[in-house]
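Hey, quick one: can you model this chain's 3D structure?
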Amino acid sequence: MHIWVDGDACPKVIKEILYRAVERLQIQMTLVANKKIFVPSSPLIDLIVVAAGADVADREIVERMQAGDLVITADIPLAADVIEKQGHALNPRGTFYSEANVKQHLTMRNFMDELRGSGVITGGPAAFSNSDRTAFANQLDRFLTQQTKQAPSM
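Sure thing. Here's the predicted structure for all 154 residues.
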């Protein structure tokens, strides 16, 4: 399993949780961003910088990821593509996307975009909170624990 991070929009506190987890469990992780961002010096952590533009980082992640990989993203269309490729997608707020719920999330996202576009709703999502951080850390820990228990031993 490999962890992929949609690096441009991922909150710093979430990246720090991920850095600690990959070092503790010795899992490879790659952040994909359209600008250079800080990543700690580690043989387990890579950064891919892609050209600027809409969905360039998303396409890079989908192209490189494999079934069973974990993708950290708040981008619902990216999460849908990950699910389609049999990957796992976790939102930085601690919500796992699945075949059962990703279409609902896409529908709601599109509906909210329409409302914002028409001026009915002008705000975005709520500010990132400590409870979001905790929810993410708990979901990540549960998922990684489950994956490491399932991994074949050598």
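One thing worth noting: The mean pLDDT is 88.
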